[in-house]
Design a protein that fits this description.
binds adenosine-5'-diphosphate, 6-stranded mixed beta sheet, 4-stranded antiparallel beta sheet, alpha/beta, 24% strand, single chain, globular, 259 residues
Length: 259
């Protein structure tokens, strides 16, 4: 009978065939509705360890909702979230090995830069000296050793965002979620931070799940893009695959529109 056969995969990719040790995030069949309206309409995605994956799509397509579900701020109606090979669908945010960097830096104004970076739920098991040592490593990574003793308000916007990045990475997340992290920066600073983010990601071999509405940014930075429309992925592929071989006319137009 069908019960004896292999499990039927409901999902279009080969998600269950790869070695799960190489998978940082596996999303399967996610759905989410608000007020009876489907915001996520059945999403599956695999993000590999060390991969920089950008999610692009028009405003309202569900990008932030997806990231909030991965972070644990929101529960899916259906489907599952695996992080580092562990099913975390029902786990609260603090029990997931993820960190989020937002457009607003949310640094603690009363703490200096080093203390900001050293502050984190997963660093509480370390001694103060251990936390500070790790924080210094992270500040070196983002090239801010020189301002460890300063308060956030003494720094430029770009520097504050690098502190936020260092703080998020200091927790050694399995995956870093970035929601329009450069959205508040001006063009020049944005270009500089794009290079900086990419360098840090590559140096650490970190896994980045990155939301942006800036397609130039996504195409320039990401290993792969997931193009989202109305709560679905219409195409997942490398920048050149998406650019040269768009899945349909909508993707072609979206990619060509620049924003
Ligand atoms: P994007 O990040 O692509 O702009 P969002 O995930 O922010 O998309 O939003 C997708 C849709 O879901 C929007 O129409 C938004 O209004 C709606 N939405 C998101 N969060 C909530 C919520 N908590 N309650 C009701 N509607 C929501």
């Amino acid at each position: 009978s069908w019960r004896d056969g292999p499990p039927v995969s409901l999902f279009p990719d080969e998600i269950d065939l790869v070695d799960s040790r190489d998978v940082a995030v596996a999303l399967r069949g996610l759905t989410k509705s608000f007020d009876g309206r489907a915001v996520l309409a059945g999403l599956s995605l695999r993000v590999e360890r060390g991969e920089f994956l950008a999610i692009v799509g028009p405003s309202g397509s569900g990008k932030t909702t997806l990231l909030r579900i991965v972070a644990g701020f929101e529960r899916p109606d259906e489907g599952s979230v695996e992080i580092g090979g562990r099913d975390v669908t029902l786990d609260p945010p603090e029990r997931r090995r993820v960190n989020t960097v937002f457009q607003s830096y949310a640094l603690f104004p009363h703490m200096n830069v080093l203390e900001n970076v050293a502050y984190g739920p997963r660093m509480q098991g370390l001694s103060r000296r251990g936390r500070h040592a790790r924080a210094r490593d992270m500040l070196a990574l983002v090239r801010l050793e020189g301002v460890a003793g300063q308060r956030p308000h003494e720094l430029s916007g770009g520097m504050q965002q690098r502190v936020a990045l260092a703080r998020a990475l200091a927790n050694e997340p399995e995956v870093l979620l970035l929601d329009e992290p450069l959205g508040a920066l001006d063009r020049k600073l944005r270009d500089e931070m794009q290079r900086e983010l990419r360098r840090v990601q590559a140096e650490l071999g970190a896994t980045f799940l990155y939301i942006t509405h800036d397609q130039e940014e996504a195409f320039g930075m990401a290993d792969r893009l997931a193009v989202m429309r109305d709560g679905r992925f219409v195409q997942v592929g490398t920048p050149s695959e998406v650019y040269d071989d768009p899945a349909d006319a909508w993707v072609a137009l979206f990619v060509g529109s620049g924003n």
